[in-house]
Amino acid sequence: MTLTFNPLLATHDESLPSRAWWALLNSFVLARRGVERVVREPSQLLDVTIQPLIFVLLFVYVFGSAIAVPGGGSYHEYLIGGMFGMALVGTAQGTAVGVSTDMATGLTDRFRSLPIARSAVLTGRVVADLLTEVVAIVVLVVTGFAVGWRIHNGLADAFLAFGLCLLIAFAMTWVGACAGTMVKNPEAAAAVGFIFFLPMVFISNTFVPTQGMPHWLQVVANWNPVSAVASACRNLFGNPNPSSDISAWPMQHPELATVAWSIALIAIFAPLAVHLYRRKTLR
Fold first, then answer.
1. Which residues contact 243 (CB under 8 A, 6 or more apart)?
2. What's the rounded mean pLDDT across residues 1-14?
3. Could you give the CA distance from residue 209 to residue 213 in angstroms, rounded to a whole number?
4. Which of 61, 215, 225, 247 is buried most, with the most CB atoms less than 10 Å from its CB?
5. Which helix (H) or strand (E) holds 58?
6. Could you give the CA distance from residue 49 to residue 76 in angstroms, rounded to a whole number?
7. Alpha-carbon distance 239 to 166, whole Å?
8. How is the chain split into domains, by residue range?
9. What predicted TM-score, i.e. pTM, was given to this entire model?
10. CA 257, CA 249: separation in Å to the nearest integer?
11. Tens digits of per-residue pLDDT, 214-273?
12. Among 90, 3, 110, CA closest to 49
């Protein structure tokens, strides 16, 4: 890939407002690069298209008949409501692999030779990955309608649910970016994603109600960010949500819990990812 100088990638003034503004412009340019790369290589969208589709079909038609929703209601609607959070949170693994690949192939060294903000490299990657999450929402909406899922509470609540999904996805991509800077190669990044993100998705209320889990595991699942966003989506879509009968604070206030988790994750992992990236590229 040939990198050319872009005037938006240059900094001019050392004042704090000017540096923040140029860092924002740098991030925009690099985010556009990330989107253009996905357009050239659509296979990078497999984790937000084919993977959620496989999970939906697997649980609806293979395991769905064996899973009862406490309090009644359609399992199809229960599943799809939770899948929005699962599909978006799970793609943080793709961010980890992408960041690790850029560092392993020397692309970040080439970025370092340009007069750009160090934080813009990771921010651009995260924003580009966030834009691909919109594709995941569209895929799940179409797939959901095909298997019998419906929105019962109106478009305003539905768009609020989608917004919460994108917010938690943005937070989790920073977790992925942090993981990508900590490992030495893309294979290790993929392994970290498998070890961390997969249990996070399954130890939640995404696929099955937590009421049937052992007590200690219920506590973990009920305080899992994935459970919070899944419950929030079910409430906003008007889908069955047996977790609303659980006394844990995140299950009683899933929308607030999703926002709180997102803010906490961004506050912790965004600065940490930038710090690790700077330290690694200065070696």
1. 205, 209, 210, 222, 227, 230, 231, 234, 251, 254
2. 48
3. 8
4. 225
5. helix 50-58
6. 19
7. 19
8. 43-103+134-281
9. 0.83
10. 8
11. 999 999 999 999 999 999 999 999 999 999 999 999 999 999 999 999 999 999 998 998
12. 90
